[in-house]
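Changelog entry

Holo records now carry the ligand SMILES as an explicit input line rather than a separate metadata file. Below, a converted record for zinc ion, shown in the new format.
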Amino acid sequence: MHACRSRQLLLDYVCMTGTRRANKRVSIKSAKEKSVMGRRLSARERWIALLCKFMRGGGEPQSKRYWAPDVETASRNKIRAIQEEKLAAMLPYLYEHSPFYRAKFKAAKLRPAEIRTRADLLKFPITTKREMTADVTAHPPWGTYTPIDDRRWRETGWMVFSTSGTTAAPRPFRYTQLDRELWETTSARGIYAMGIRAGDLGLTCTTYSPHVFFWSLHYTWNLMRVGIVPGGVPTERRVMMIDLYKPTVVAATPSYLLHLAEAMSHAGLDPTKTSIRRVICAGEPASGIPSTRHRIEQAWNADLHDVYGCTEAVPGGWAFTCAEGLKSNPVATHVAEDLQIWETVDPVTFEPVPDGSRGLSVVTNLNSEGSPQLRFLVGDYTILDYDRCVCGRTLARARGGFVGRADDMLNVRGINLFPTAIEEIVRRFDLLGDEFQIVIETEGVMDTLTIVAELRDASVAAEVESLRGKIASEVSRRCELRPRVELVAAGTLPKTEFKARRVIDRRRAL
Ligand SMILES: [Zn+2]
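Structure line, unchanged by the conversion:
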């Protein structure tokens, strides 16, 4: 970002209260300054000054290969120094403005000043969704886990994002105008790394609900001068838009991308021969499930990229697949380490796992005014790899992406089972369609696992018996559970319009 724009942002955000005319005469030479207009900066102002200092990229890439090369290819020492400089400013801000985090500090007998390094950070206990849910239930409707109060929200509010609240109270997050600016500039890095450029045309398959991915993509494409076709509903309209307006990129959940390709075929159009060159997935694992990735790439004759993040900790620039890393096996997803600190922990003890080991994802968000979370357990399994990527980026990579959310894990007859493991198997069978369900029931005292999958079309009906046997054997071999397999005609199961509902667990209804 240009220094003058950064300085203007700083002025706008630091000196909010009725002194705008005076602000124009203030000269802030660097974000390190401790005072402005003759007074010391508050913890909030120091944090905002630092966010502005590290904002990168403006509306143009800073090199041909990288949007923000100085941070994307920084040495490991430089990345660590940025993280620690940000921690030193963020923790007092969070302590002062979030009662939820202040209570966690006190319970752990810690002061913000005692956490200066990444190693120190491990002293702070993991933050869970369950804790946040209890907080928002006790302090409705916003909870106290963000540093935004009603006054700050009125002054600088941009948008509320929220978890769905289907299984517990919805957890809302109030993001500010500064967050929006951080969002578009940092997310542009990932989109640029995928090979998307000004002049591309993107179709978004969303109704613009409070889902962080599509809104951030929208603003990022605005910044990068990527044109947007808002897909709206229904699916038939999106099919028509692809045919008529010729977008080069389409963004959707992976389940929906398969449904959309099928809808194109039904409309007499060939999805492998459209203008689409890249698809971007979010909301469900995609690139990390090889058979799903292969199926989507084949269906669209396009490269599949995906982004990863969570409602609780944005704008973090997302984790993203780069064009070169996409060809590696397993696929690699970069995490933006100057913006967020990522760790992997043991699912039972929450202790850090050794480098190169599989663990649950945990994020500390160093890039937000509205939601700078601390050691938040996102809860997907991955392995972090700190070697330099073939693309030249030094940012760590999640090897194999983020696959298998701990919350989604099923326990069937004492065996832990991830729905994504079943997906990986089912999607390998070309004779099957795109929709499937995993049904778990209780018969007597035993849990039963049934996989219901659609046949590709009527022409494969003769294969049903052998197919059932092959699927059951493969699931049995890889998941240690022998399932029943029901194969049904194409079009029997509900179509996925956004995120798929794959698991029907009838045990919970009892
Ligand atoms: Zn890379």
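Spot-checked after migration. The mean pLDDT is 88. Residues 76-97 form the longest helix (22 residues).
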